[in-house]
Structure formats: C-alpha cells, structure tokens
C-alpha cells in the first residue's frame, strides 16, 4: 500500500490555551506531505476532512483506501478536491486521463473507484488534496485558473495585496461540502486573511507553498482573544478548528491553498474581528 496516514483529534479551546510550542506543532502542523511514490495524509476529526499530498516519481501512485475509512474504495462515501502544486502532469479518474497544469484544480465526486496520479515527464509532480464526506454524487470536473472566481484584495500599503482564486466553490463547481481555492501574495505583501475571522460552521486547512527555501510564514491560530503562532515552511499545512482564526505573515510573499468543510457552502459565512481587537 502506498497510502500512509495519521489521525488528528479535535481540541477544546480551553485546552489549547495551555499548549506549548511542541504541542501546537504536534496537533495542528502537517509536515512531510510529499514523499516519493506515496500518498501522505492526515485524517482529522474536524469535520472529518482529510489533508494529503502525492508525489509520483518513478511511476503512477493510486489513491487507495485505508482502514480508518472502512470502505472498499477511498471515494465510496467521500468527495475530493485536487490542486496541482508541481509540474504539469495527469490524473486518471476511472480510466479517464485528465491533464492538470500548475495550480489547476480537479473535483472528483463520491463513488469513483480509481484515482491514479502520474509522474511529470520533466519531473517535479506534486498534488495537494482535501477530501470530505459526501452524501451525493457530483460529476468530475477540472477547473482551469481562467474559470476560477477571481478577486483582488488588500493593498501594498497594508502589506496584504493578494489575488484570491476560488476554484472549487459552489459558484464554479457543484460539491457536497468541500471548498478550495488559492491565494497568491503580491511581491512586497506578506499578510493573508487580515482582518481575521472565524466560522463556527466550517473548519479550514491552509497549505503553504511557493515559500522560498530560506523563508518562512508565521501562521496565527486560536480564539481572537487568545492567539498563538506556528512557524511554517514550504509545502507544509496547518489545521484550523472552527473556533480559531487562520491568518499568516511571511518573511516574503508566497501562495497558499485554503480548504474548508462543514455544514454550508456560503463562502462569506464568517465572523470578522477588527485587527485592533486581536490579542
């Protein structure tokens, strides 16, 4: 089997307040998402979201089920969103070969039996994915960047000029609960998702990439009046409970993928907090 997984349990915000650096990183940071010829994933009990990475190098890698799912196939009761974070490559979905260029997305619905990730001819294939439980089958759909719902936000003066590309949301593709998108920081900007917010109806995961090897991002999490931070390197992800803010500031500009699962598909369903109220 080429699928390697761990499980993360939910944390009460009162417990969170007492965590030291090691505990914060153990429960919320996801490292080593990309190892050759394998699927690396974390099964989290926050809305049962799965966060994973695939790096096919010497041959195709199949997305297989694992014991925690108690299913014959990975997608028997799940949907999945895949974003290419490496070189142009292909994914085979029940025999259909789909080309994915860098940063293009692929939605695959419940009931698909076989998903295979292929190496890139030039090397450097990497796929990041989120998967959530699904109650209905929606068709497989590839989303190019030109098809994304794209908005510009922030300003260079506030160090948060960014482009948000909503690739897997209900205005672009039908899903049960999964939503994903990319946010690209402009040169000279470092802050993402500021002012910060929470949403009790959805959890969220951030995957940071295109972070220069000698740079890092400080990711902020916790209740608005009780925040903590985790230093994050390139190709690492952070889990965000529904009660937690999710924001970051880098030592350079970067790109990150946000993924959400929960009880609704309303992108704007969030509780915002003034910057000056954060503690």
UniProtKB/TrEMBL annotation:
<dbReference type="Pfam" id="PF04962">
    <property type="entry name" value="KduI"/>
</dbReference>
<feature type="binding site">
    <location>
        <position position="197"/>
    </location>
    <ligand>
        <name>Zn(2+)</name>
    </ligand>
</feature>
<dbReference type="InterPro" id="IPR014710">
    <property type="entry name" value="RmlC-like_jellyroll"/>
</dbReference>
<protein>
    <recommendedName>
        <fullName>4-deoxy-L-threo-5-hexosulose-uronate ketol-isomerase</fullName>
        <ecNumber>5.3.1.17</ecNumber>
    </recommendedName>
</protein>
<dbReference type="GO" id="GO:0008697">
    <property type="term" value="F:4-deoxy-L-threo-5-hexosulose-uronate ketol-isomerase activity"/>
</dbReference>
<dbReference type="InterPro" id="IPR021120">
    <property type="entry name" value="KduI/IolB_isomerase"/>
</dbReference>
<comment type="function">
    <text>Catalyzes the isomerization of 5-dehydro-4-deoxy-D-glucuronate to 3-deoxy-D-glycero-2,5-hexodiulosonate.</text>
</comment>
<comment type="pathway">
    <text>Glycan metabolism; pectin degradation; 2-dehydro-3-deoxy-D-gluconate from pectin: step 4/5.</text>
</comment>
<keyword id="KW-0479">Metal-binding</keyword>
<dbReference type="GO" id="GO:0042840">
    <property type="term" value="P:D-glucuronate catabolic process"/>
</dbReference>
<feature type="binding site">
    <location>
        <position position="204"/>
    </location>
    <ligand>
        <name>Zn(2+)</name>
    </ligand>
</feature>
<dbReference type="GO" id="GO:0019698">
    <property type="term" value="P:D-galacturonate catabolic process"/>
</dbReference>
<dbReference type="InterPro" id="IPR007045">
    <property type="entry name" value="KduI"/>
</dbReference>
<dbReference type="GO" id="GO:0008270">
    <property type="term" value="F:zinc ion binding"/>
</dbReference>
<dbReference type="InterPro" id="IPR027449">
    <property type="entry name" value="KduI_N"/>
</dbReference>
<dbReference type="InterPro" id="IPR011051">
    <property type="entry name" value="RmlC_Cupin_sf"/>
</dbReference>
<comment type="similarity">
    <text>Belongs to the KduI family.</text>
</comment>
<keyword id="KW-0862">Zinc</keyword>
<feature type="binding site">
    <location>
        <position position="246"/>
    </location>
    <ligand>
        <name>Zn(2+)</name>
    </ligand>
</feature>
<dbReference type="GO" id="GO:0045490">
    <property type="term" value="P:pectin catabolic process"/>
</dbReference>
<keyword id="KW-0413">Isomerase</keyword>
<feature type="binding site">
    <location>
        <position position="199"/>
    </location>
    <ligand>
        <name>Zn(2+)</name>
    </ligand>
</feature>
